[in-house]
Design brief:
The chain is built from seven helices and 35 strands. By secondary structure, it is of the alpha/beta class. Strand 26 (286-289) and strand 27 (294-297) form a beta hairpin.
Length: 396
């Protein structure tokens, strides 16, 4: 019987805002790959999405099947989990901590499936790598890179490493065809280093794994990278970066520090911008939670910047510990901006005004055209919906 594989959003989506304002949960990048890409490695390309209605035109669901295997989009696969999921029959589900991990139905529910949708459930007792909060993305990034590295390099041979580099543990360095690495230090003793095709690590860079550099991305000269860090595709990164994930199509091209942070797509951090990832009193970091409409404990001592898609900051911007910046915001000026910047905000420490969608679209079109990508009408509809959904937070 033919099955469709559907990656669904559950209640964790609200905790993952602002990153999930513009994508399903499964499109989050953690490790080398997005969660969707991980599942496709195991299941093939027949994966679609059950997500919010306003996202469904860009991320549609394939309903042409007689049976649907629904998989939680926040859960990362491994061989044991995939084997257990593929054994499920119609009406059965795998459960972990009162959460549906996967289940099989003959028809697709309108909303994310719950335990009561299934007549038989099995508790999955093995450990699961999953993303439930924004800080999980950098917190679990090391384990995710390790897993993806094994998945992507199995039965493959790396391109040769240039003799101009200093390399520790070269067996854990994998360079794809078309990538360039010269006159740099690569230390894979602390974790693997994966350099994707047509990317570049420029001269004088120092990289300590685990680290992943996406396709067509670049580390600028003299970059200092502490793992576990991921730079997604089509991005440029310079300066100092520690335990951070950049989803893709974003730039931090100059000096400045980024630590324990998650940066969405189409973002830009101006020259010498810095974020704090540790409070002066070493206390637990709290960050803004859209579901609570207030600040939530992270349980972490180190937590930096969470930035939604299409947001930018000017030169010398300073971000406090645990700052959350929404979608399509533009930050500039001296001083520390507030540690929650709503979507479509324009300004900085001296105050904010509304960044009107028409102006935000103008910038997005210019930025995306540099990558030969068009801001589509579907993208505009999504951003307009985000603008409407977040009006209550722009009380300025």
């Amino acid at each position: 019987m033919e099955r469709n594989y559907i990656l669904f959003d559950d209640i964790r989506r609200e905790n993952l805002l602002p990153l999930t304002f513009t994508r399903p949960v499964a499109e989050i990048r953690v490790g080398i790959l997005t969660i969707t890409e991980k599942w496709k490695h195991y299941l093939g390309d027949n994966c679609s999405f059950l997500t919010k209605e306003y996202l469904s035109e860009k991320y549609p669901m394939n309903t042409t099947s007689t049976e649907f295997l629904l998989i939680n989009g926040g859960v990362c696969p491994d061989k044991n989990l995939v084997d257990a999921i593929l054994k499920l029959k119609a009406g059965n589900a795998l459960i972990s901590e009162n959460c549906v991990i996967a289940g099989v139905l003959r028809s697709v529910p309108k909303n994310s499936p719950c335990i009561s949708d299934f007549y038989n459930t099995t508790i999955y007792n093995n450990s699961i790598l999953q993303v439930s909060n924004p800080w999980d993305i950098f917190r679990f990034n090391g384990e995710a890179i390790e897993r993806d590295f094994e998945l992507l390099t199995k039965n493959r041979k790396s391109e040769p490493i240039s003799s101009t580099n200093t390399v520790l543990n070269p067996a854990k360095v994998f360079i794809e065809k078309g990538a360039r690495v010269e006159c740099s230090i690569l230390n894979a003793e602390t974790g693997p280093i994966y350099i994707a095709k047509d990317s570049e690590i420029m001269e004088g860079s120092i990289v300590r794994g685990p680290f992943a550099l996406g396709e067509h991305s670049a580390l600028k000269m003299g970059a200092k990278i502490y793992g576990p860090t991921t730079v997604g595709p089509h991005s440029k990164v310079g300066g100092e970066v520690n335990n951070s994930v950049i989803f893709g199509y974003s730039n931090k091209a100059h000096d400045g520090f980024l630590g324990n942070s998650v940066i969405g797509e189409w973002c830009n951090l101006g020259a010498d911008s810095n974020n704090s990832n540790l409070k002066n009193n070493y206390a637990e970091v709290k960050i803004w939670n859209y579901q609570k409409k207030g600040f939530a404990k992270t349980g972490l001592q180190f937590c930096g910047l969470i930035m939604g898609d299409h947001s930018k900051c000017g030169i010398n911007t300073m971000f406090n510990t645990g700052t959350v910046v929404g979608v399509s915001s533009n930050i500039f000026g001296s001083g520390f901006p507030r540690n929650f910047v709503p979507c479509f905000a324009w300004g900085g420490a001296s105050g904010f005004t509304v960044y009107q969608p028409a102006k935000a679209f103008e910038t997005a079109e210019i930025v995306m055209s540099r990558r030969d990508i068009k801001l589509s009408d579907i993208d505009k509809k999504i951003l307009l919906e985000v603008f409407e959904q977040t009006k209550e937070f722009r009380n300025f």
